[in-house]
Amino acid sequence: MRRPVSWMDGPWRGILVAAVVGAMGAFAVDGFRSLLFALESTFVGAQGGYLVAAARRLPPEVRLFVPAIGGLAAGLLLWLAERRRRPGLPSHRGDYIEAVAIGQGRLNLRGGLVKVLASLLVVSTGGAVGREGAMVLLAAMLASATGRLFGRTVELRLVVSCGAAAGLAAAYHAPLAGSMFVAEILLGSLALAQLGPVIVAAVVSHGVTTWLVGRSMLFVLPPLLAPSAQQLLPMVVVGFVAAAAGAALLVWLDLARAFYTRRQWPLPLAFASGGLVVGALSLWRPEVWGNGYSSILQLLTAAPVWQTIALVLALKLVAIAATTGSGAPGGVFTPTLFVGAAFGALAAAAAQALGAPPELAPVYVLVGMATLLAATTHAPVMAALMVFEMTGQYALLATVLPACVVAALLARRLHPRSVYGLGEVAASEPVSPPSR
User: What is the C-alpha separation between 267 and 77, in angstroms, rounded?
Assistant: First the structure.
């Protein structure tokens, strides 16, 4: 693999490797999604990833115990893998964030694959985590393996960053947001030599994904009403409130992790307890199952009354804390987007009580999604772009982006570490471009 590209100039070599990694990431995410949907159909009868609808059809006793059984199985898998782990493996086992931000880009493929399988078990049985975490990890692992084949002709950290961007682009149909995720969170630098290959990987991944699944947006919405100049101020106020809400969410998740850490339960017991909490809450509201995708779609198209939104949000926060706090593998992007969507829907209800037109309600939902994601990730540009690429509402970018910047800046002061556990110091070291 090294000789055919060794004659190429460094930047062109990086572009070529990024394109290969992007295509591989798209196929990996599509394969993961297909396997996940098959497992969800087998375990709980879900179709197309709609776990909430499946939960409503299940008998109460099944709904109660399925997430706990899935957590128990995932915990046993990771526990057995840890006992069989050989000494001397890379420290960043299945953690692409650390491998890029503070490591050398080397990922242990065996440990990462076990984590992906465990995530499949948790997500397919209703665990309140996102499936995108395993998708991005899988794409990053393939990128790490590919980068090693090229040896020192490429910068491994940059190749893994391309894989992460490709995975996120394929998971959310958001190539620009995938690129900015790497730039703002992983690399901490917007140097063109670093960002160019990342963009190529994300765009190629998005193109392959669109070819495979036949659609380019996650949430298809009609054009939304643009707010007037008088209505922009409440949107910015939402950004201020979202900063506090995002920081509070991070503190809440920290408390949940500390709760489980103090008890030092074995992984199978910890994961099962988190799943049992989700199952118990789902007896009240089935919406606590899964990553929140179905509920986001409902909030964008036909939001229920604010009392129902507030109740589901409160229960979902407990479910997310129980699942992630137990250490169960999964993503936090989509659960955070749901929390933001519910926050925005509540803000819309308050604005309507003060005279705002009902047609602006979906706009508030989008603002809530973007600002809360910006507050928890400390990545305002990525958050704004992701929401617009998922919905196609680019005309609102000038409205939402300032609110995201405000939310991220204030949230960083309130909670210096992001949802990924990275502060400014950890994410500030740039990745050097590939050597010529």
Answer: 9
Q: What does the alpha-carbon distance between residue 150 and residue 137 come to, in Å, rounded to a whole number?
A: 20
Q: Any idea what DSSP says for residue 102?
A: T
**pLDDT for the residue numbered 433:** 39
Q: Which of 213, 242, 274 is the last residue of a domain?
A: 213
Would you say residue 84 lies in a domain? yes
Sign of CA dihedral 53, 59, 64, 65: negative
Query: Containing H/E element for 239?
Result: helix 229-263
> For residue 88, what is the enclosing H or E element?
none
Same domain, 61 and 155: yes
Q: Cα–Cα distance between 323 and 330 in angstroms, integer?
A: 9
Distance (Å, whole) CA 338 – CA 342: 6
What pLDDT digit, counting tens, does each position of 175-226 carry?
999 988 888 877 665 455 578 889 999 999 999 999 998 877 888 888 887 7
Higher pLDDT, residue 150 or 39: 39
Residues 17-45: tens digit of each pLDDT: 899 999 999 999 999 999 999 999 999 99
Are 341 and 408 in a shared domain? yes
Distance CA 382, CA 400 (A): 12
Torsion of CA 182, 174, 397, 354, to 10 degrees: -110
Domain that residue 381 falls in: 229-414
Domain total for the chain?
Answer: 2
Strand, coil or helix: what is 103? coil
pLDDT over threshold 90, residue 430: no
Instruction: Work out the number of other CB atoms within 10 angstroms of the CB of residue 76.
Output: 17
CATH value at residue 93:
1.10.3080.10
Q: 236-269 burial string, b = 16+ CB within 10 Å, else e?
A: bebbebbbebbbebbeebeebeeebeeeebebbb
